[in-house]
């Protein structure tokens, strides 16, 4: 089979095929494989079944949760839901793990073109260039005002527009805006937000780069990188 995208979490892996199928393998203690199984893990890739007949077009792996976007712009999530970084349940329902892909209800006006997953927060980029975030918020991970330790409801980061790409580290996020600038926010203990200090960043802040354009961005747990054209 031909693989078109891969993603790796803390202790599990995901792969999308050209046919739009999703495979997972690794640890499954937190249901991060999305296979609706009680097995502790798998050393061999196996297909992830979705409740609807969908074609997966993109995937992201957080610490112990996964997100997938379909070719029609829908988003599914599974795995660790400790900070409701996967799916928003109402106050009467407590679910710390989501065993299999569940379709998320997002307040979006356009299709999702990219998903991003941190340790306990998640993001979605729409075709109109808007970014929505949800999950853990105490380090500024959501890039928007939040007076609670986490926010289970996906909400728009209003100060960002025409975003081209978004990626998550463990507790921080990077995004490329429509005018080619790099923004960062979230946990900054190791300086991975690139602001010149180690203070946590609670709103998207421009990262100054001496470059003509940014071609690719990426995040690790406590570091960031950007491939640029000078």
Tell me about this structure:
The protein is mostly beta strands. It folds into two domains: 1-105, Methylamine Dehydrogenase, Chain H (7 Propeller); 111-229, Methylamine Dehydrogenase, Chain H, CATH 2.130.10.30. The protein is 0% helix and 47% strand. The protein has strands at 3-8, 12-17, 22-27, 41-47, 56-61, 65-70, 75-80, 97-103, 112-117, 121-126, 131-136, 150-156, 165-168, 172-176, 182-186, 201-207, 213-219, 224-229. The strands form five sheets. Strands 1-2-3-4 form a four-stranded antiparallel sheet, with no helix packed on it. Strands 5-6-7-8 form a four-stranded antiparallel sheet, with no helix packed on it. The mean pLDDT is 93.
List the total number of helices: 0
- Helix and strand pattern: EEEEEEEEEEEEEEEEEE
| Beta-strand residue percentage | over 45%
Number of domains: 2
Rg of Cα set: 17 Å
The N- and C-terminal alpha carbons lie at a distance of 37 Å
CATH architecture of the largest domain: 7 Propeller
Oligomeric organization of the protein chains: single chain
Query: Roughly what is the average pLDDT, rounded to an integer?
Result: 93
- Biggest beta sheet summary: 4 strands, antiparallel
**Helix proportion of residues, in percent?**
under 10%
SS content category:
mainly beta
Order the strands across the largest sheet as they lie in space: 1-2-3-4
Number of strands: 18
Low-confidence stretches: none
């Amino acid at each position: 089979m031909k693989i078109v995208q891969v993603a790796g979490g803390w202790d599990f892996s995901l792969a999308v095929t050209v046919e739009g199928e999703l495979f997972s393998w690794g640890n499954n203690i937190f249901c991060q494989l999305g296979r609706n199984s009680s097995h502790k893990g798998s050393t061999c890739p196996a297909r992830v079944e979705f409740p609807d007949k969908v074609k997966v077009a993109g995937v992201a792996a957080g610490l112990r949760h996964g997100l997938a976007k379909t070719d029609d712009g829908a988003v599914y999530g599974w795995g660790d839901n400790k900070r409701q970084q996967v799916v928003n349940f109402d106050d009467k329902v407590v679910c710390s793990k989501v065993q299999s892909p569940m379709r998320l209800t997002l307040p979006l006006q356009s299709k999702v073109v990219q998903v991003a997953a941190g340790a306990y927060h998640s993001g979605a980029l729409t075709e109109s260039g808007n970014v929505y975030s949800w999950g853990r918020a105490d380090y500024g991970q959501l890039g928007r005002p939040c007076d609670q330790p986490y926010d289970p409801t996906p909400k728009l980061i209003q100060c960002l527009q025409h975003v081209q790409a978004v990626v998550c580290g463990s507790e921080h996020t990077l995004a490329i805006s429509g005018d080619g600038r790099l923004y960062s926010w979230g946990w900054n203990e190791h300086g991975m937000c690139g602001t010149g200090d180690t203070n946590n960043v609670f709103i998207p802040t421009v990262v100054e780069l001496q470059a003509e354009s940014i071609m690719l961005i990426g995040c690790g747990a406590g570091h960031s990188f950007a491939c640029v054209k000078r």
